[in-house]
Model the fold of this input.
Amino acid sequence: MSNHYWVTAVRKSKGVFTDEGRYPDEAAAIVRLAELGENPDCLIAEVTEWLDSSSPQSGIVVAQSERFDGEWVRVEGDLRTRTEGGEAESVLRAAKGG
Done:
């Protein structure tokens, strides 16, 4: 069982897949996820549990929030990595008006 929870985000000022910290347990990571919602610069954030830090395929997104109509809301349902790649870049471009 892992005790490695990473919080990553997409921020207008910093770009995609910003490292927001590593936490010893899920509860501490969820608190950080909520704190990110207080900053309008943050567009999407997620908590990932890393089961095996040596394998890039071992991460499971366990919690996720996003800015929707200016409000920070918890994503329910299908959780997947959204802080890197094409989707994150599109969200960032849209937020910057481009």
Observations:
- Strands lie at 5-11, 15-23, 42-50, 59-68, 71-74.
- The chain has a mean pLDDT of 91.
